[in-house]
Amino acid sequence: MWKNRGIQDNKHGRYENLRIERRTKTKGQKTKKCTITSSESRIEPGGFASFLYMLCVVFIGVTSCIDALMVVKYKTTVNEEQNPLGSFLIKTTGQEGLFIVKITGTMMVVLFIIFLFRKWVRAAYLIVSIVTLFQLSLMCYIFS
Q: Which helix (H) or strand (E) holds 124?
């Protein structure tokens, strides 16, 4: 049986200085005690970091929408599209299909990043940094 011992933080519903104990008993042996201790080292959402995070999320969404709008505006053909998946989608569904796939993918990514920020802040910062750098390189490519 596992028992949690520690001071519970009511704001976030987690334990500070968490100590988890498990007692096991086998036939003919003494009770064994297994203890796992952990001090919380979590990045708290709030302040300038949260503002910068949401700014990156907005940048990701805007960049992706600009990329999708360029397909429709310039009537990209199969020969002009440099992305193999984009070329396949243009062949099968046309430019409108590629536009719908890009916008749907953008919405899914942005919602996932926002959800991740609420659940696992460190991973969210890492992922949004990588995606922001990728989108920045995409913007430089589009406008060069």
A: helix 121-142
Note the pLDDT of residue 1. Answer: 47
- Asked whether the beta carbons of 7 and 15 are under 8 A apart, the reply is yes
For the chain, the domains span: 2-38, 48-142
Instruction: Give 48's Cβ-side CA count (13 Å radius).
Output: 0
Least Cα distance to 57 among 111, 101, 100 occurs for: 111
> Which pTM value belongs to this model?
0.63
Determine the longest span between alpha carbons in the chain, in angstroms. Answer: 79
Rounded to an integer, what distance in angstroms lies between the CA atom of residue 132 and that of residue 58? 10
C-beta separation of 45 from 121 below 8 A: yes
**Token representation of residue 76:** 């990209």
Assign 84 a pLDDT band (cuts: 50, 70, 90): confident
For residues 93 and 87, give the distance between their C-alpha atoms in angstroms, rounded to a whole number.
Answer: 10
Percentage of the chain exceeding pLDDT 90: 26
pLDDT digits (tens, 9 = 90+) for 97-111: 888 998 999 999 999
